Amino acid sequence: MSNNSVSQRLIIKIMASFLMLMVLVGVSYVLMTFYFTSKYFEETTQKLNAEVANHLIEEKFQNASPFLEDGSVNKPLFGDLMHDMMAVNRGIEVYLLDSEGVILYSVVLDHSSDEKTRAKVDLEPIQKFMACKGGDYILGDDPRNPENQKIFSAAPFSVDGNEGYIYIILASQRYEEVTSSLIGSYFLKLGVGASITAVLFAAVIGLISIWYLTKNLRSIVESVKRFKDGDLSSRVPNASENDLSLLAETYNDMADTIVANIEELKSVESLRRELIANVSHDLRTPLAIMQGYVETLQMKVESLNEDERNKYLGIIQKSIEKLSGLIAQLFEYSKLEAKQIEPKKEPFPISDLAHDVGEKYQQLASEKGIQIQLDIEKNLPLVFADISLVERVIQNLMDNALNYTPKDGRVTIQLNSDQKNVIIAIKDTGPGIPEEEQSYIFERFKKASSSKAGQGTGLGLAIAKKIIEIHESTIRVISKPDQGTEFRFSLPLYTA
Question: Which domains are seen in the chain, by residue range?
Answer without folding.
Answer: 3-43+180-213 (no CATH), 50-169 (3.30.450), 246-337 (1.10.287.130), 346-492 (3.30.565.10)
